Amino acid sequence: MFPTRLTEGYRAFLDDRFPREKNRFETLAEKGQSPEVMVIGCCDSRVSPEVIFDASPGELFVVRNVANLVPPFETGGEFHGTSAALEFAVQALRVKHIVVLGHARCGGIRAFADDTAPLSPGDFIGRWMSMIGPAGEKLGPHDGNLEEYLPRLELAAIEHSLRNLMTFPCVRILVERGKLHLHGAYFGVANGVLLVRDPETGEFRPAVDDLPERVSMFSAREVKG
């Protein structure tokens, strides 16, 4: 049986949002999509780019995977979901911005730090998360202090993905020509604070200066790099 929650949500969509945005959907269906921004986010159900950025249909081209990772460019193997989405966004859609959106309390990052036992014989998560090995090596051992270490590793993983993006020839060429811009961002699930990476210093700072008081006092656990 199809999940009741989805059926109820779809009915709400038909009753409210679809009528309000009907013209937009019709235009998208006829003319296709032309988003200027690609977001590479985590598949964590708590971190929806469309919700965080209050985006309408057609505004963001989103690919999500465990821990919002970008693999390095390579043509071996057989399946390249994230690389395929990246290729389409850059070569076909001609996006102008790519945002690697990480987040606090990421389960994939935690699994890597804990060296968690495989969930299945395939160990798909473990193999996937091994990509951030170089970032973890740079940080060094966590000595059991995961509360401080995990946010640092989450931010380091974003940096690592940004470096991997530049290994794709189509990305590197456009970045060097100033036609494509890469960004790192980090979302605090508990407090709603969005940090954006400064391309000059590599520091992550609040995306907006006028944060509401209720979220301005964010915890060090969420943001410390």
CA radius of gyration: 19 Å
Arithmetic mean pLDDT: 92
| Cross-sheet strand order for the largest sheet | 2-1-3-4-5-6
Query: Low-confidence stretches at least 5 residues in length (pLDDT < 50)?
Result: 216-225
Number of helices: 11
Q: Give the end-to-end Cα distance, rounded to a whole number of Å.
A: 45 Å
Helix percent reads 40-55%
Overall shape: it is globular
Query: Structural class, from helix and strand content?
Result: alpha/beta
Largest sheet: 6 strands, mixed
Q: Write the element-wise H/E pattern from the N-terminal end onward.
A: HHEHEHEHHHHHEEEHH
Keywords: Lyase, Metal-binding, Zinc
Catalytic activity: hydrogencarbonate + H(+) = CO2 + H2O
Cofactor: Zn(2+)
Organism: Microvirga terrestris
Features:
44% helix; Carbonic_anhydrase_sf; 15% strand; Beta_CA_cladeB; 225 residues; 6-stranded mixed β-sheet; Carbonic anhydrase; zinc; Carbonic_anhydrase; alpha/beta; globular
Describe the model:
Helix content is 44%, strand content 15%. By secondary structure, the protein is α/β, with parallel strands linked by helices. Strands 2-1-3-4-5-6 form a six-stranded mixed beta sheet, covered by helices on one side. A hairpin with a 6-residue loop joins strand 5 and strand 6 (204-206). Helix 7 crosses helix 8 (146-165). The longest helix is centred in the C-terminal third of the chain and has 20 residues, at 146-165. The radius of gyration is 19 Å and the shape is globular. The model is unreliable at 216-225 (pLDDT under 50). Its cofactor is Zn(2+). Belongs to the beta-class carbonic anhydrase family. Keywords: Lyase, Metal-binding, Zinc. Its EC number is 4.2.1.1.
